[in-house]
Amino acid sequence: MKRLVLAICAACLPVSTFAANWQCRNGDLEIRCDDARCSAQSEGFTPVSLVLDTERGTLELCAYSGCWSGEARIARDGPFWLASGRGLAWNGPQGDAADVAFALDSRDRIGTLKGAGFAMPLTCVVED
């Protein structure tokens, strides 16, 4: 009974109670997809990095010469973090805003990125 009460109380806490700054990347390969197919590259690419700040409610995806960043809608469902950023601003020399979605399993710290032409898994760590 005690566990049940604790679980119900934890479920009622706001997302900020479980705030974290997730740093994610994939240095092994880059996967890009369009409406026809996906292609993977394992050499000669600059790894993307993604930062999900659940306390500030922001998402940043960096690749090559700049980053897409901005506010994100963030939800937590048990071990899963789900984030989406619409029209994230590009701060590099050339480029457009992008929509980005990210799902993270905090148990194994594996995330899945979809957006800005990328569709790929990322490994993540929590930054203090």
What does this molecule look like?
Helix content is 9%, strand content 55%. A hairpin with a 2-residue loop joins strand 10 and strand 11. With 128 residues, the chain is mainly beta. The strands form two sheets. Strands 1-4-5-6-8-9-10-11 form an eight-stranded antiparallel barrel. It has one helix and eleven strands. The chain has one domain (16-127): Beta Barrel (Porin).
Quaternary = single chain
**Helical residue percent?**
under 10%
Q: What is the arithmetic mean of pLDDT?
A: 87
- Helix count, DSSP H or I runs of 4 or more residues: 1
The Rg value, from CA coordinates, equals 16 Å
Text of the CATH class: Mainly Beta
**Alpha carbon gap, first and last residue:** 34 Å
Shape: globular
Can you tell me the CATH topology? Answer: Porin
How many domains in all?
Answer: 1
- Spatial ordering of strands, largest sheet: 1-4-5-6-8-9-10-11
Given the helix and strand composition, which structural class is it? mainly beta
Q: Which architecture does the CATH hierarchy give at level 2?
A: Beta Barrel
Unreliable residue runs: 4-17
Q: What is the total tally of β strands? A: 11
